[in-house]
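W.,

You were right to be curious about this one. When I first looked at the sequence I had no strong expectations either way, so I just let the prediction run and decided to look at it fresh. Below is the sequence, 180 residues in total, followed by the output.
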Amino acid sequence: MNVRIIAGEYGGRIIEGSGTSRTHPMSERVRNALFNKIQSELPGADVLDAFAGSGALGLESLSRGAASAVFVERDRVAQKIIAKNIELLRAEDKVHLIRARVSAVRKTIDQQFDIIFADPPYYNPQLSTVASLFALLKPNGLMVLSYPGTDEVPTGAEVVVVDNRSYGNAHLVFYRKKNV
């Protein structure tokens, strides 16, 4: 299944979907609502796309003005598709693809991010791993978790939930890291 970049520099361009049944692509309707909500935070942002799948969230961020995107994906098929999509959009100079489990990312990355997208597989939401990503947020940074709505969302002393939205079976939780 192909995915359309909605707006910005790459707007209207078609990228390849994740190519694996182990991932669930976020619908265009949900992505559009998400990016309309966070648009003002994207220019110049450093973005982490955890559980990246096709890389659509990170690539949409770059299209809308983010400075850089780091993609983390463990599935080999999805990794190849992300690399192909990066090449298709000629975004190589703005991205880094980490071929690893998200649970190992804190050992791999020596960087903090303005925005983190956590879109784990719905069959295995890995909420403790998602909670560990809070440490990678810059002060006042934003993290968006997409989950099926059946589990209790993670919380942490360093973040506050600032919004919670539902779109059918897709639920988005927006976290803001506290200024310390």
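Here's what jumped out at me. The longest strand covers residues 137-147. And, maybe more interesting for your project: The two ends are 43 Å apart (CA to CA).

Coffee later to discuss?

I.
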